[in-house]
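Structure first, sequence second, as always.
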């Protein structure tokens, strides 16, 4: 299994709007080959920080999704006026080792 963890920090206190957008997202990733599940997290100590954990059968499935038009389509639901802390966006890949 491959896990992608993406994170970013919201610069303009739109955390509640961003979280609501995730709750109401169009669920397009669920149609991607190799997709297992998505979790969206926000740490208590920084409610303007968002972490996305996507689980995939393999890294190739993630890469196909990440480069697809559907990946770009899901970002159309981003609240207008959202600003991110420069340099805060990270996308990292992980090998699932054990549970």
């Amino acid at each position: 299994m491959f896990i992608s963890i993406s994170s970013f920090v919201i610069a303009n206190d739109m955390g509640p709007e961003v979280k609501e957008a995730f709750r109401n997202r169009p669920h397009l990733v669920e149609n991607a080959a190799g997709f297992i599940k998505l979790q969206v997290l926000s740490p208590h100590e920084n409610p303007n920080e968002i972490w996305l954990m996507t689980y995939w059968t393999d890294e190739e499935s993630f890469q196909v999704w990440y480069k697809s038009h559907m990946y770009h389509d899901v970002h159309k639901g981003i609240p207008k006026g959202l600003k991110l802390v420069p340099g805060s966006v990270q996308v990292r890949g992980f090998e699932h080792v054990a549970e």
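Margin note: The mean pLDDT is 91.
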